[in-house]
Design a protein that fits this description.
mainly alpha; 2 helices; 0% strand; elongated
């Protein structure tokens, strides 16, 4: 490719762009949209909480009080 040739993005080509949808189809698609993201976030927070509890009960408590 020569340096003076303009760059053409594949995203600008019509065959790579989704067809427009109507407002009814968009509302139906978004009705249950964030459920998967909320499930993944809840799992991540649960894993972090369990890890914190493990640190607390297995590392901090057995050492006894400080002072």
């Amino acid at each position: 490719m020569a340096i003076d040739e303009p760059h053409h993005s594949a995203a600008a080509r019509p065959e790579h762009v989704a067809a427009p949808i109507g407002p009814d189809e968009a509302a139906r698609a978004l009705r249950n949209g964030p459920v998967g993201a909320l499930v993944i976030a809840a799992i991540a927070v649960g894993i972090l909480f369990i890890g914190w509890m493990l640190f607390y009960f297995l590392l901090f408590l057995p050492r006894g009080p400080i002072g």
